[in-house]
Structures are given as structure tokens and as C-alpha cells.
Amino acid sequence: MTIHILALSGSLRAASTNTAVLRTAIELAPDDVEMSIHDLRDLPFYDGDLEEAGAPESVEALRTALERADALLIATPEYNWSVPAVLKNAIDWASRGPDSPLEQLPTAVISAAGGSGGRRVQAHLREVFAHNDVDLLDEQVMIPRARVHIEDGRLVGEPHRTEVRSLVAALAEHAESMASRSAA
Ligand SMILES: Cc1cc2nc3c(=O)[nH]c(=O)nc-3n(C[C@H](O)[C@H](O)[C@H](O)COP(=O)(O)O)c2cc1C
Predict the structure, then answer these.
(1) I need a labelling partner for 54 at 20 to 30 A (CA). Which of 72, 97, 141, 148 fits?
(2) Which positions ≥6 away from 48 have C-beta within 8 Å?
(3) Cβ–Cβ under 8 Å, residues 178 and 72
(4) For 15, how many CA atoms within 13 A lie in the half-sphere containing its CB?
(5) Ligand 1 atom, smallest distance to 18 CA
(6) Ligand 1 midpoint to CA 111 (Å)
(7) Number of domains in the chain
């Protein structure tokens, strides 16, 4: 069974360490995993009026991509001890309605951050995701001083590459077990 993982980066920077980590995760993923990065750049700020008028195309594209995915992998910086607005905004759009594609979605979080490694953004996301019963893995990867570990747009050096490889494998394995359980 092929497992489809949707990847979201909490940073829009072209040279983002988090997007680089996601590119590396794609390369380290098991053979039966297909992973793609969904760009959050075009999402407008959440606005109830926009939603009532019919969600914008970029919002529909995000929700559809999440619906089609077996699992979600996030790589995010920590901003001021919390979740970057770009990522929180995407979660807010995706969280809406009884048919939210976040419900029960197997999810894992990597934080490539400053000195903290993103301990607080990990904790805050755990609280945020409790709202939609997101199926968040206990395993998480934290990469302190992220810039030191990126070369040519890729994560370099062990043990972080091993950690990322293990996390993606654990996420895929969990997603597969959840998919077969719901199919049974
Ligand atoms: C506005 C802002 C606030 C930040 N706050 C924190 C923080 O609270 N904790 C931390 O570890 N790093 C913090 N950082 C550093 C970023 O997490 C770090 O540079 C990260 O690698 C940036 O991710 P990116 O390379 O994917 O853009 C902050 C950076 C910015 C721009």
C-alpha cells in the first residue's frame, strides 16, 4: 500500500531550514511513501466573511490535499515561543466544520528552530491539535540551531537525519495501520 504524506512548512523563506528538512524527509522516506510539500504562501488570513462567501481556491486546495493524504508531516520554526502565524493560519482554515480534514489525521511534527529546538512550538501544536482530535504521534524531532545543519538545501549530519528517517517511517507505519483498521 502506498502511503501519501502531505508536508507543510511553517516558514515561507526560500532558504527555509524547515523546508530543507522536508525535502530531506522526502529523500529519506521508505519506498512505499509518496510525499509532497504543499505551499502555504497563497493562503489569505482566516476571515469568516471569506469563508461564508465560499472558501478561496487556495483554501480548498489545502483542504483537498489534506483529505487525500493518509498522514501529515509538519516542519516548523518556533516564533516567539509559539506557532508561526503562517502555520497557525493554515490550521485555522483546515480546522473548520464538521468535515475538517484534520480530524483523526495521523500527524508528526519536526521543529527546526533556534537554540530551543522548538520545544515550545511542539507543546503548543500539541494543544492546538487536540481541538480537532488530530492523531499526533508521541515521537517528535527537534533540531536546535537549525541553520548549522543545512547544506545545499538539505539536512546534513547524524543524528538528525536518522531521527527524521525514523519519524517518517513511524508516521507511515501508523498511517497504514489506521487505514487498514478503518477499511476492516
Ligand atoms: C520572529 C521570529 C521569532 C523567533 N523566535 C524563536 C523562538 O522563540 N525560539 C527559537 O528557538 N527560535 C526562534 N526564532 C528562530 C527561528 O526559529 C529559526 O531561525 C528557524 O530556523 C527559522 O526557520 P526557517 O529557517 O525554516 O525559516 C525566531 C525567528 C523569528 C524570525
Answers:
(1) 72
(2) none
(3) no
(4) 7
(5) 26
(6) 10
(7) 1
Residues lining ligand 1, Cβ inside 6 A: 11, 13, 16-18, 77-81, 112-116, 118, 146
Residue 68 belongs to domain spanning: 3-183
* pLDDT tens-digit map of 23-63: 999 999 999 999 999 999 999 999 999 999 999 999 999 99
49's CB contacts (< 8 A; 6+ apart) are: none
CATH number of the domain that residue 11 is part of: 3.40.50.360
CA of 173 to the centre of ligand 1 (A): 30
In the predicted model, residues of the chain with pLDDT beneath 50 are none
Atom 28 of ligand 1: nearest residue by CA position: 79
pTM (two decimals): 0.97
